[in-house]
Amino acid sequence: MASVRSSRKGWKTAATGLAALIVIALQAIGLGVGWPQEAAPLRIDEEFVKQEKIYRSQGADVPSGYVTNRGLSDYVGLLPSGFCDALSRLGSLDRWLDIGAGDGQAILDYYGGVDDAAPAENCARLGAKARAVAMSIEDRRTDKWRQLAVSLGDERIRYVSGKRLRQYSREELGKFQLITDVYGGFSYTEDLSQFLETVLSSLEIDGVFYTIVQNVHLEGGKDNPDTSYQTALMDAAGRDVKVCSWLKKTTCVKVVCESKRDWDSPSELINIRKVCSDVSVPRMKLLQFQAGNPPGRRFQLEP
Ligand SMILES: C[S@@+](CC[C@H](N)C(=O)[O-])C[C@H]1O[C@@H](n2cnc3c(N)ncnc32)[C@H](O)[C@@H]1O
């Protein structure tokens, strides 16, 4: 009897071990909790092609979720609480980079809205505005942008497009006191560590990066476990890693996350201040990518 019990116990232990292995294996190929269950693993190269089509879409072909015209007041509502103050403190020699600017509406509002909105709404000081650079993969400049660019000149507002942030050299971009990203590169890139490295190398010491990322594991585990995670990180053993925990492992930065669990999509509003120059971002590799607005991504920290 004792031997039957112990063999049952052994079988149970083996079955539990096997189940744990299956969970780790499923997580490793991207079929973990919250990731869409595909019959076959997605082909990353095919997903990249689909994503490129979203970027290049024009007119009626632009998917409804791919919003490119958020104004400055939307940025104030979506970015961490100190953003508007930080923008209003910039002087005329300071520089602001908006990564993933789409139409560049936030910069247009900053420069053009002073007459129609209170300074608290457009985050601008009368007479002193920072030099602003809008960056987008695809060129979405509007007539309004072109008119303002002609009247202000390239020195004040500039629109750069045709490539991704990581493809610019330091000399091309220069350095910035403030960098923003509202559902831009941080939410769309297939190389998150390289993206962050480029952001931080483009920031002056004491400069701040403000961004937001939706449908992620929130700091302190405050999110609903039924969430369909769009950006998921894991360590080398396949355990979930929160985006803010990963960011906090970067050297020479001070990271503050404001978790919004009551929003439709659990989101982290992220503020990263660069405090010294010896920045090192823990590397991650891309495991899965599913085209979308924004895309679904799974990354794994390199050991
Ligand atoms: C959904 S739109 C957001 C536009 C704008 N921020 C808004 O809220 O209306 C995404 C933008 O991010 C840009 N983008 C995505 N990945 C990028 C990257 N790695 N580098 C630069 N821009 C990127 C796209 O080209 C596009 O301009």
SSE topology:
Layout: H1 2-28, H2 44-56, H3 72-78, H4 83-89, E1 95-99, H5 105-112, H6 119-122, E2 131-136, H7 143-152, E3 157-161, H8 170-173, E4 176-181, H9 185-188, H10 192-201, E5 203-214, E6 231-234, E7 240-241, H11 243-248, E8 253-260, E9 267-274, E10 284-290, E11 296-301
Parallel strand pairs: 1-2, 1-4, 2-3, 4-5, 6-11
Antiparallel strand pairs: 5-9, 6-7, 8-9, 10-11
Helix pairs in contact: 3-5
The chain binds S-adenosylmethionine.
Task: Walk me through this protein's architecture.
The structure is a single chain. Helices cover 33% and strands 23% of the residues. By secondary structure, the chain is of the alpha/beta class. Strands 3-2-1-4-5-9-8 form a seven-stranded mixed β-sheet. It has a four-stranded mixed β-sheet with strand order 7-6-11-10. A hairpin with a 5-residue loop joins strand 6 and strand 7. It is globular and about 55 Å long. The model is unreliable at 1-34 (pLDDT under 50).
As a percent range, the share of helical residues equals 25-40%
> How many helical stretches?
11
- In round numbers, the mean pLDDT is 87
Percent of residues in β-strands: 15-25%
End-to-end CA span: 46 Å
